[in-house]
Each structure stands twice: as structure tokens, then as C-alpha cells.
Design goal:
- This protein is of the alpha/beta class and about 210 residues long.
- About 50% of the residues lie in helices and about 10% in strands.
- The chain contains seven helices and four strands, in the order H-E-H-E-H-E-H-E-H-H-H.
- Strands 3-2-1-4 form a four-stranded parallel beta sheet.
- Helix 2 links the parallel strand 1 and strand 2.
- The longest helix has about 30 residues.
- The protein is globular, with a radius of gyration of 19 Å.
Length: about 210
Amino acid sequence: MPSSVSGPTLTGGVAIGLLAAVFAFGEITHLRSSRRRLGTTRSSTGSDQIIVVLGFRNSGVRANWLNRFRVRAGLRSIDPTARSAVVVFCGGAVGGRVPEARLLERYAREELGYTGCALLETDSATTWENIAEAVPLIDEVLRPDSTISIASNSHHAEKARDHLWQLRPDLGRRLVAGADYRFGELPFVKPIAAARGLLALRRLDREKAAL
């Protein structure tokens, strides 16, 4: 009798342990990624904020779930103690006829009630292009005390921060952490995003080392 009960109980315990390990992997890797490749300034308190929200391939005329997440991450990155905040929405018409940047801004304003300053970059098709095309817009609003945050999922935002460091080290030094990481958010997505993101970051580092 005891052996007939211990089998299913043990199996259930292993399954729970595996789920817990996967959940922990997603959380820990996203938390670490959100704190890497930042600049020398550690806080946006009292600064003029520039927040760059990266778009994702969108086939419809409404922001998809991942783009909606990125907009929420961008808007919650606004520091209430900052002197000013400008949000730069990025992304061209990659998956549909409407540029991702316009879908991001529309969601921010019409569904989240954002009324602040926004700039749109509507030509890019890759993460590198997101940042390269956003730089002139950043320069337009840059002030002596401006900080820069990049909003996406944590690993993608880290990759974009690396691109900014490569393109403009002077702007890279202004990078501060955004609010892309929240404990327990998107628990089923984080492990998959972490696995893909870590591979992409390792590939990026290998390419840089080979130069």
C-alpha cells in the first residue's frame, strides 16, 4: 500500500520541482539582464528622462500582446521625480501596413491614457536599426542631465543597450534601468524569452569579440 502511493506522490513532487526550477530560471535571468550594460548614472531621479520603447513585428492594426507589454514597461519606467520625460516609440511597418511605432503610441495614448511627449521612429526593421534610427531623435531632446532607458523584455532591452554603447558610447553612459522586470510577470513567457535572449546575447558577444 505505501509503495502504490509513493509513486504518484514522487512524480508530482518532481514535476513541481521542475516547474519551480523553470520559473526561477526565468525570473533570475531576467532580473540579472535588466541590470546589465547600463551607464555610469544609476538613477533617473531629478533628471530629464528619455525612454525608448522597442517595437515587435505586428501584423494587425492594433498593438499585439508583446507590444502592449513593451508599452506598459515603458510608461511605468517614467520616474515621477524626473523633471521631464520623453517617450520614443520605435518600429517600422515590418509585419503589417502600420508602423509599429504608431501602434505603440496609439495603445499608450488611447488605452493607457498617456498624455506626455512622444517621438516616433517609423523606419527601422531590426533591433540595431531601432537604436540607430532612434539616436537622432534622442539627440533632439537630449539635455545635460538626461538619462536613457530602453523598454522591451529584459534580454532584448539589454541587447539594445549594447547596440547603443557600440553606436554612441556617450549616450551609453546615460543608460539607466527601466521597469521591464517585475517579479511574477509573464511567468510562462519568461523562461522561453530567457533561453532565446541569452543565446542572442552570447552570439552578439562572440561577434564583437571576433572584430
